[in-house]
Design brief:
Blueprint (H helix, E strand, L loop, with lengths): L8 H10 L2 H19 L2 E2 L9 H7 L10 E2 L2 E2 L5 H17 L4 E3 L5 H12 L5 E4 L15 H4 L3 E4 L2 E2 L4 E2 L1 H11 L3 E4 L10 H10 L3 E5 L4 H5 L13 E5 L10 E5 L2 H15 L7 H36 L3 E2 L11 E5 L6 H10 L2 E2 L1 E3 L14 E5 L1 H5 L4 H15 L5 H12 L11 H4 L3 H5 L1
Parallel strand pairs: 1-15, 5-6, 5-9, 9-10, 10-11
Antiparallel strand pairs: 2-3, 4-12, 7-8, 11-12, 13-14, 14-17, 16-17
Helix pairs in contact: 3-11, 4-11, 5-10, 7-8, 11-14
């Protein structure tokens, strides 16, 4: 067991020694994880983020022990009065950020949100048109995930390799010929906005609904750096609340179609969610308030950092995808490392150097290349949240080059990354209260 260091080390060790060994082991593993991920590594996973200390404080509350099946003020359990008020506040805050949409925060994940929406729009045996899997469609969009579980047929829209996007003309023709009930846009890997308006018009012309999965870009949407799909023809938007939107893990459903929104709400419960993990609602509300006041500056810096990292990686000798299009307009950067052993090898080496990324399929990869795809998917939102800017992106690119291209010992680079990270441990784009007090005390008095 590794002894704690710094302030409180003696107290921590005495606590561990007072507990059964089984409990001490678990607590020590958690402590080591926290220390490594929050103080020693550069996290570039595109689907992760961190809450502010204030939101984390709100997350730790008694609501985690309670049940609130149903909708606010129409519950199947008593004792939910405060929960109801918080849930209504969450819905109103997110609705305001999304330009007047109705918002349901009960899905416990983006996948659960997708399942609820798909179940209402498409009957079993119906048809859905999605983006190609190797071009970024999330597994929940596919026959391997939620569509398959709901007995919905999957068709893939044509992809435009040059523009790295949906081929609009061919997709419109496909919609007209196939006449699906559902068209899905949005992805887990995408650098540029999908053509919402054009695809929505085609979908509506055959009576289909357009659902936009904004799991990755919700924070950029509310920060004004990514188009709001609801303003460009999407019938429903689903999203995660913990990627570019820096809240607790969970999902939401948003729509401006009142009737459709109500139908979907009746599918969330009881089909896919019973109790919806109530303790995350106060943290989600706090994060929504943070995004109301700081979201524009945060989203602007995220997109600036992504472009800066892409340019720096290219300058260091990496093959960065999308150069002819300006690399990226989102929080993500895609890098082809097929010439350096592939994504699996590169990701593992970088982890040993305290740089966390994930291997990922590139549009040119066959679907069966998933175990060792050509690419790395990189996201800058968490490091932006910790205060890194364009200059730090260039330093990160140099670290990555030393490991992946130069073949330097990752352990040597890891020590430098650890020292580099020490200057970026406090969450930005939040309220000063976090620098003055431990706000958890306010909620536990």
């Amino acid at each position: 067991m590794v002894a704690a260091t710094g302030f409180g080390a003696a107290l921590w060790d005495s606590i561990l020694q007072s507990l059964p060994s089984e409990a001490s082991r678990v607590l020590e593993l958690v402590r080591r994880h926290n220390r490594w991920r929050r103080f020693e590594t550069v996290n570039l996973i595109a689907s992760e983020n961190v809450m502010s200390p204030l939101a984390e404080s709100a997350y730790l509350n008694d609501m985690m022990h309670r049940y609130a099946e149903g909708k606010p003020f129409k519950r199947y359990y008593q004792g939910t009065g405060f929960v109801d008020e918080v849930e209504v506040a969450v819905s109103e805050l997110l609705g305001e950020l999304l330009g007047g949409a109705r918002v349901d925060p009960r899905p416990v994940s983006g996948t659960t949100a997708n399942a609820s929406v798909f179940r209402v729009i498409v009957p079993c045996g119906g048809r859905a048109l999605i983006a190609p899997v190797q071009a970024g469609a999330h597994v929940s969009h596919t026959k391997y995930g939620t569509l398959g579980a709901l007995c919905i047929e999957q068709l893939e829209m044509p992809y435009d390799d040059y523009n790295m996007n949906i081929d609009v003309d061919r997709a419109v023709k496909m919609i007209e010929d196939a006449r699906p009930q559902l068209v899905v846009l949005g992805a887990s890997v995408y650098l540029f906005p999908h053509p919402v308006k054009e695809i929505a018009e085609a979908a509506h012309s055959v009576g289909a609904r357009l659902v936009y999965d904004a799991a990755h870009v919700l924070g950029l949407i509310v920060g004004g750096r990514w188009r709001n799909p609801l303003s460009h023809g999407a019938d429903v938007m689903t999203a995660s609340t913990h990627k570019t939107f820096p809240g607790p893990q969970g999902g939401i459903i948003a729509s401006r179609d009142e009737d459709l929104f109500k139908k979907i709400g009746r599918a969330v419960f009881p089909y896919f969610v019973s109790n919806h993990h109530l303790h995350r609602l106060p943290a989600l509300a706090i994060t929504a308030v943070e995004m109301k006041y700081f979201g524009e500056a945060y989203a602007e810096q995220v997109t600036r950092n992504a472009k800066a990292l892409a340019e720096a990686l290219a300058a260091e000798g990496f093959r960065v995808i999308g150069e002819h299009l300006g690399y990226t307009r989102s929080h993500q950067v895609l890098v082809d490392v097929s010439g350096h052993g592939g994504g699996a090898k590169a990701a593992l080496l970088l982890e040993k150097a305290n740089i966390i990324v994930n291997k990922n399929l590139l549009p040119s990869d066959p679907p069966d290349a998933i175990k060792n795809p050509s690419g790395l998917r990189i996201g800058v939102q968490e490091m932006t949240r910790f205060g890194m800017r364009e200059g730090e992106m260039r330093e990160i690119a140099a670290f990555m080059r030393r490991v992946v291209i130069d073949g330097e010992d990752p352990a040597r680079v890891a020590s430098e990354v650890r020292e580099f990270r020490r200057s970026y441990t406090r969450v930005k784009f939040t309220f000063d209260v976090n620098t003055v007090i431990d706000s958890r005390l306010l909620l536990l008095e």
